[in-house]
């Protein structure tokens, strides 16, 4: 039987969800009106002015709302722009890369993916399957470890120092007998990726699955994604990596041009 503590927990959860809903409503109010005072926000939300003030204060502390000097009114802050920019960038990568993905999958007859860096993971944002692809698994939206996948290693090799050091300073989980779990060995692989312009994995994340990936650059030259091809190890042996890499690198360069990089 549920006791008082269970009831309190449920009420707390409901209150938390309500606060999030109200905070999002504040952003929508400011987006619709351009600017608004706490009194106006409270009236539209149907809450006490003190509640509206607390909501606005939290949003202001995170940069999503900013106060207009000496006017007591608020408007959307650059935190919203930052989130919108990140979302737009991901949409651009997936949209501009779709044609490249499909062409490469048809050419190599295997599965082709586009992945981006998300904290200490790689997240797949687009996928195309070639006619010979054995797996029907959809990787879009799923995250994979940086140290055990070809896309992950390419992204890690070009990641900010803080991200790379963070990954190398923690335990590297083993997924198969081929997974690299020694930070020094992984660093050597990352150095080679930067030097040769592509990376690969041989049954390091899944037994029987090999992959080759290359970096995709944005207009400013920074690596914003990785383009990869994966397939069964009996068909995509390590001896095939250089040949496949040339095709994947060419695809990544085309995608980079579509994103505005002409270096």
Automatic annotation (TrEMBL):
Domain HTH iclR-type: 17-78
InterPro entries: GAF-like_dom_sf, HTH_MetabolicPath_Reg, Tscrpt_reg_IclR_C, Tscrpt_reg_IclR_N, WH-like_DNA-bd_sf, WH_DNA-bd_sf
Entry keyword Mitochondrion: no
Highest taxon, organism lineage: Bacteria
Molecular function GO labels: DNA binding; DNA-binding transcription factor activity
Pfam families: HTH_IclR, IclR_C
Domain IclR-ED as annotated: residue spans: 79-261
PROSITE patterns: HTH_ICLR, ICLR_ED
Keywords assigned by UniProt, alphabetized: DNA-binding, Glycerol metabolism, Transcription, Transcription regulation
Gene3D superfamilies, alphabetized: 3.30.450.40, Winged helix-like DNA-binding domain superfamily/Winged helix DNA-binding domain
Gene Ontology BP term (one): glycerol metabolic process
Purpose: May be an activator protein for the gylABX operon.
PANTHER family per UniProt: HELIX-TURN-HELIX TRANSCRIPTIONAL REGULATOR, ICLR FAMILY, HTH-TYPE TRANSCRIPTIONAL REPRESSOR ALLR
Name this protein carries in UniProt: Glycerol operon regulatory protein
